[in-house]
Amino acid sequence: MTSGPVAVRPRVRSSRTRGSAAERDRLVGYAMVAPQVLGTIAFVVVPLVTVAWYSLHEWNVLAGTFTFSGTANYERMLADPGLRDALAASLWFSIGLVVLNVSLALLLAVLLDQRLPGTTTFRTFFFSPVVVSLVAWTIVWGFLLQDDGGINGFLAALGVDGPNWLRSGPTAMLAVIVVQVFKNVGLNMILFLAALQSVPEEVQEAARIDGAGAWRRFRSITLPLISPTVLLVSILTVVGSLEVFAQIDVLTGGGPGNSTTVLVYYLYQQAFRFNEFGYASAISVLLFVIVLALTLIQWRTRKRWVHDEV
Amino acid sequence: MRSDVSPAPVAGPATDDPPALAGPPPAVGDVPVARRRRRPRAVRGLLVALLVVLSVPFVFPTWWMATSSLKPMSEILRVPPTLWPQDVSWGAYADVFALQPFAQQYWNSLYIAVLVTAGTILVASLAGYAFARISFPGANVLFVLVLAGMLVPAEVTIVPLFRLVNTLGLIDTHWPLIVVPIFGAPSVLATFIMRQFFLGLPRELEEAGRMDGLSRWGIFWRIAFPLARPAVAAVAIFTFLKSWNLYLEPIVYLSSRENFTLPQALTQYVDAYGGPMWNVQLAATTLTVIPVLAVFLVAQRQFVQGLAHTGLKG
Q: Is the dihedral of CA A148, A152, A156, A162 positive or negative?
C-alpha cells in the first residue's frame, strides 16, 4: 500500500497481556488526550469561569481593591458611552471588512479562475501578505498612510492633495479596514477559488448554449452554487474581525479620539491602561457572548448547507 | 467532486498528493482543452491588466518597505517619491542593532515559535489520534470540551491568564508565550485537523501493525504519525506563523527589551518625541518579513493549504 519508512518489528506477546488489551487501549487513549484536555481546562475553561467571576467584582489592580460588587460592572456597561462607541466602532469595522473583503476575494477568485496567463504568479501576489507578520504589514501601511507618506507623495506627484488619512475619524477607520483586507483577503480568495472550481462545467456549458452571457451565468448559476461558501466565509470573517487588535494598536492607537477603538481595544485599555480588571472582565464576558452567538449561527448555517448539498 | 469547505481539508489519505480542497488550482496545462472556451484576445488582455492593477496594494507595500529602508532620511519622505533609492544607504540596518538588542529579540521570536510548533504538533497529533481511533468512555465529552477552545478568542481570557501568570511569578518571561499556545486554545485547531486526518487513514494499515504485534503506542509512532506528514506540515506552518506574529500576549506579558519578541520590538523604533524612525523601523521590518516571504515562495503549495484552515477558523 505504501512504501513509506514503516519498519514494523514483530513482537511476541503472551496471552495474559492480550486479555487486557482493550483496557490498556483505553488507558493509552486517556494518556494521549490528557495534555490537550488538561491544557484546555487550565487555559480555557478555568479562565472562562474566573473571568465571569471577576466580572462581578470591583477590581482595580493599582488601587489594590477586589470586592464583590454584584452586577455593578454590567450596570456600568449599560451606561458607558465609551463602550457604546466601541461597539459602534466594532460594528462599522466588521461591516466594512466583510463587505470589502468578501467582494474583493470573490473578484480575485473569479479572475484567477479564467485561465489567464500568469495566474499562478498573481495568486502568489494576492496570497503573500497572509504570511507577512501583521505588525510588519501594519507598520509599512502606516508609513504609506502618513500625511507626508508614500500615498500622499504619489498623489502630490499627480497634483492631488491627499487627506491626512490616519488623523480623521472616517479615513482612519477606512485605513484600518483596508489594511486588514489586503492582509487577509488571500485566504478567502483561496476558499472561493475552491468553490468556483467545484461548479460543474456542464451547467455552465448548457447555459452558454441557451445564450446566457458571462455576467448572467455568474449571477444565475455560479453565485447561487457557491452561495453557501459566501455565507460561511462572511460569518467567519465577522468573527475574525471582532478580534482585531494589533492593527489598531500600531496604526491609530484607537484614535483619532476614540473613532477606531473597537471592543477588543477598549477591553485592553480598561485592563492594561486603566487597571480596571473587574470592568475589563465584564467586557470580556460580553465579547465572549457575541462570538458565541455568531459561532452558533455559523454552525446552524453550515448544517443547513450540508443538507442542501446532499 | 464537490469541494468540501469544512475544516477537514487534510483528511485525505497519506499520499504525497495534496488534498483537493483549497489547494492551488490545477495548472493551466492540466485542463482538458475543451473545458472552457477561450475569451477573445482583447478581453483577456483587459482582464490581465486588471489583475496587474489589483496586485499593486499586495506587492507594492513590501517593495516600498524594502526600498525605503535603504534610503537616507533626506530621501525617505521626498516628493515625488523615488521607487528606487538614489543613493543606497545601509545605515538604518546598523541602527536596528545599535538601538535595541535586535538579534536577541529575533532569537526570542524564533526559538519560541519553534518550541510552540514542535509542542503543538506533539500534543495535537496525540490527542487527534486518540480522538479519531481509540474508543474510551467519555471520549465525546472530552472532545466537545476541547473544541470549546475554538470558541474562545484569546482576548476573552487575557485578564484571568494575566493574573495566573502574575501569581506564578512568570511576568516578563517567555513561559506564557510557550506553554499556553501548546496546551491551550491555539492548539485546538491543530488537534481538530490531526483528528480529521487520522479519521481518513485506512484502518487496514493499523491492522497490519497489530497483526505484527505492535502496541497502540507502536502503531501511533511507527505507522500513523509518519503517514500524517501532510497534516503535520499544515499544522506546523500555521502554528509557526501564529506564534511568530503574536502581538497582544507579548505586550501584555513582557516588559524588558531583551525579552521582547519581534512584532513588539518593531514598534519600539521611535525618536525622543515618540515619532517613528521610519528608515530604522522599516529596516527591522524588512529583516522580519523577508525570510518568511522567501520560505513562502519556496513552499507555496504547503503554505496555501496549511493556512486555508486558519481562514476557516477566522
A: negative
